[in-house]
Amino acid sequence: MTKKILVVDDDEEILEAIQIALEMEGYAVKTSVNGDCFQHLNGDLPDLILLDILLTGEDGRDLCQQLKRREDTRHIPVILCSAHFSGDLITYLSGASTFLPKPFEVDELLTTIARYTTPAQAFASAPADTAALSETAREE
Predict the structure, then answer these.
(1) What span, in angstroms and rounded, lies between the C-alpha atoms of 121 and 65?
(2) Strands annotated E in 60-125
(3) CA 90 to CA 20: how far, in whole Å?
(4) What confidence tens digit (pLDDT) does each residue in 6-43 have?
């Protein structure tokens, strides 16, 4: 079954590059330049959301928290991405699954997405990610 990925970033060139890379790997990709797309998430939910933290006029951390409060979307893994220096702490506090620092290599993106879209790997990696984020939160 084809996994569906929603990518939200206000940089259209980044969106296009990510979409091409993910589609070449067999993912079905939808993109958005803002968080308005979350108001229209209904029955056909994505399997994963790649969400930029610093969106024009919006904050990806707040959007992630809103998604995690909704009964119908709280189960969807959210990967926050940004060049922000304290991304791990932000990810931990927002309820996201993990953080991907920008700039990132395509291989790193694909590996991270595969970790959360492959059922056996997603469950196996979740405790390690939580522990790593907790350690980062304590250090900062």
Answers:
(1) 24
(2) 78-82, 98-101
(3) 28
(4) 999 999 999 999 999 999 999 999 999 999 999 888 77
Nearest to 65 by CA among 38, 100, 95, 32: 95
Supply the pTM of this predicted model: 0.82
Q: How many other C-beta atoms can be found within 10 angstroms of the C-beta atom of residue 90?
A: 21
Structure token pair of residue 46: 């994505």
Q: Indicate left, alpha or beta for 49 from its phi (over 0: left) and psi (-120 to 50: alpha).
A: beta
pLDDT digit string, tens, across residues 88-137: 677 778 899 999 988 999 999 999 999 999 876 444 444 444 444 433 33
Amino acid occupying residue 44: D
Phi and psi (nearest 5°) for 59? -120, 120
DSSP state of 83: S
User: Which has the closest alpha carbon to 82: 74, 90, 93?
Assistant: 90
Q: Report residue 59 as tokens.
A: 């904050």
Residue 44 exposed, middle or buried by CB count within 10 Å (0-12, 13-18, 19+): exposed
